[in-house]
């Protein structure tokens, strides 16, 4: 027999006021026209749940669960497919976020326009009219296809259209514009975002529709405020880039169907976004040789090794507190490495301004760029220009030691493929990868790296 849960107290749904007895109104906020609602404690609820049920087992042994092949559809971009783990998974729920104007709608429209050649796609445009979407569609050079435009923000109308049309792909642009009837929460509110995302998630799983929602990033750098959507979706993608720079970086933050931290690189053009096939050559293009403070580092973005130029400028300061300015490198990491150079290598940096920039707008979050930053700072301070055919990578600890990083072979192979002849890397007891035509210069501490800087800086490429 089912045991009824007994309320421990009563609560106002508007302000949270609690009372031991039921009341027909809230004495605190004068709201709750239907009275206070019962609140059952966790222990009482648990006791009630344990007394229910017929004992029929519902859990499955892992060996009894059948294997299902993951069905993927290409987006038409190899870079987009890379961050997705191989393409769109049928019935998945994807969130594409980024700053306003960075190109989220353009990327989404380009992808679904390609898929519309063999699949039915519904594009729910909440921020643009059908004519505006058509103008962008024509500018992208697309024609035909089974692509339908729905100028609607009401979620109920969108779901009804999905039921009528039975598309394989649904795009909601953007989730901040979605409403749920006249009596629902205001557009863009946290409650509405969570509720509408839950409905779209259930739609994706029940109808096997791949749902892509576009979300704007707030001033705090998160999607829709306090990350209320990221735990609901299967995949979270961020599109990054400066409006004054054509480069756009698509990063995977979460992916239930593939690896995370993957990076896709695009270039904005009048015809839309174009994928950058050879990323290392793209970021090294226009590099000035024999420039003090310039070092090429090998960074690993997901599973992809990437060669980028790291530039430093160290100059005397005219301020009481020296400036530390960094673009593409965390300022906290810059301050740590500057302190390591001063304490462990005896370089005077505390009375100098330091400016660091990563060419191409790339952000180096990986600590494997530490050694390159150290040599860049020292080269700028001592006015030593490193040979242009040298690549550097390695993590630097507070004691000045240079530590081993992962995927050394792939980093060295990428460097050799782009014509580099020398690699400064961490010393290791393990056998080094054998890359033909590449001379390895292992170092154990910062002091050895600075001596190597003088040696390689005097070499001719």
Automatic annotation (TrEMBL):
The keyword DNA-binding applies. Residues 353-461 are annotated as: Lon-protease-like. ATP binds at residues 98-105. Gene3D superfamilies: 3.30.230.10, P-loop containing nucleotide triphosphate hydrolases. GO terms for biological process: recombinational repair. A motif (RadA KNRFG motif) lies at residues 254-258. GO terms for molecular function: ATP binding; ATP-dependent DNA damage sensor activity; damaged DNA binding; hydrolase activity; zinc ion binding. One of its GO terms (cellular component) is cytosol. InterPro entries: AAA+_ATPase (IPR003593), DNA_repair_RadA (IPR004504), P-loop_NTPase (IPR027417), RecA_ATP-bd (IPR020588), Ribosomal_Su5_D2-typ_SF (IPR020568), Ribsml_uS5_D2-typ_fold_subgr (IPR014721), Rubredoxin_2 (IPR041166). Residues 69-217 form the RecA family profile domain. It comes from the Bacteria. Pfam families: AAA_25 (PF13481), ChlI (PF13541), Zn_ribbon_LapB (PF18073). SUPFAM superfamilies: P-loop containing nucleoside triphosphate hydrolases, Ribosomal protein S5 domain 2-like. The keyword Metal-binding applies. Keywords: ATP-binding, DNA damage, DNA repair, DNA-binding, Hydrolase, Metal-binding, Nucleotide-binding, Stress response, Zinc, Zinc-finger. Belongs to the RecA family. RadA subfamily. PANTHER family: DNA REPAIR PROTEIN RADA, DNA REPAIR PROTEIN RADA-LIKE PROTEIN. Plays a role in repairing double-strand DNA breaks, probably involving stabilizing or processing branched DNA or blocked replication forks. DNA-dependent ATPase involved in processing of recombination intermediates, plays a role in repairing DNA breaks. Stimulates the branch migration of RecA-mediated strand transfer reactions, allowing the 3' invading strand to extend heteroduplex DNA faster. Binds ssDNA in the presence of ADP but not other nucleotides, has ATPase activity that is stimulated by ssDNA and various branched DNA structures, but inhibited by SSB. Does not have RecA's homology-searching function. The middle region has homology to RecA with ATPase motifs including the RadA KNRFG motif, while the C-terminus is homologous to Lon protease. This is DNA repair protein RadA. It comes from Leptospirillum ferriphilum YSK. The lineage of its organism: Bacteria, Pseudomonadati, Nitrospirota, Nitrospiria, Nitrospirales.
């Amino acid at each position: 027999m089912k045991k009824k849960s007994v309320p421990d107290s009563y609560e106002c749904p508007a302000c949270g006021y609690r009372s031991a007895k039921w009341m027909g109104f809230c004495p605190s906020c004068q709201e709750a026209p239907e009275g206070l609602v019962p609140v059952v404690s966790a222990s009482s609820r648990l006791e009630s749940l344990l007394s229910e049920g017929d004992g029929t087992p519902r859990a499955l042994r892992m060996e009894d669960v059948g294997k299902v092949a993951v069905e993927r559809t290409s987006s038409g971009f190899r870079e987009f497919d890379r961050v997705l783990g191989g393409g769109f998974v049928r019935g998945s729920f994807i969130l594409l976020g980024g700053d306003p104007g960075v190109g989220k709608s353009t990327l989404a429209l380009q992808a679904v326009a390609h898929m519309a050649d063999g699949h039915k796609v519904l594009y729910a445009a909440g921020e643009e009219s059908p004519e505006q979407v058509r103008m962008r569609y024509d500018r992208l050079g697309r024609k035909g296809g089974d692509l339908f435009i729905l100028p609607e923000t009401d979620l109920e109308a969108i779901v009804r259209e999905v039921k009528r049309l039975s598309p394989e792909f649904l795009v909601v642009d953007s989730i901040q514009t979605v409403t749920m009837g006249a009596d629902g929460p205001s557009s863009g509110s946290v409650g509405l975002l969570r509720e509408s995302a839950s409905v779209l998630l259930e739609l994706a799983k029940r109808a096997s529709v791949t749902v892509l929602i576009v979300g704007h990033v707030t001033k705090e750098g998160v999607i829709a405020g306090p990350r209320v959507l990221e735990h609901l979706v299967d995949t979270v993608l961020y599109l990054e880039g400066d409006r004054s720079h054509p480069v756009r970086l698509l990063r995977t933050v979460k992916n239930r169907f593939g690896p995370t931290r993957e990076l896709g690189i695009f270039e904005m053009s009048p015809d839309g976004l174009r994928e950058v096939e050879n990323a290392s050559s793209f970021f090294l293009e226009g590099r000035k040789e024999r420039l003090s403070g310039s070092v090429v580092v090998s960074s690993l973005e997901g599973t992809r090794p990437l060669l980028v130029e790291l530039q430093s400028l160290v100059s005397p300061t005219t301020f009481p507190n020296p400036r530390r300015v960094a673009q593409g490198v965390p300022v906290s990491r810059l301050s740590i490495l500057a302190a390591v150079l001063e304490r462990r290598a005896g370089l005077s940096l505390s009375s100098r301004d330091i400016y660091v920039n990563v060419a191409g707008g790339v952000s180096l979050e990986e600590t494997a760029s530490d050694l390159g930053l150290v040599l860049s700072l020292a080269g700028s301070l001592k006015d030593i220009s490193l040979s242009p055919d040298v690549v550097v990578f390695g993590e630097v600890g507070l004691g000045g030691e240079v530590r081993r990083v992962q995927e050394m072979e792939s980093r060295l192979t990428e460097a050799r493929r782009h014509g580099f002849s020398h690699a400064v890397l961490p010393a290791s007891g393990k056998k080094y990868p054998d890359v033909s035509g590449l001379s390895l210069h292992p170092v154990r501490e910062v002091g050895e790296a600075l001596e190597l800087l003088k040696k390689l800086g005097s070499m001719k490429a």
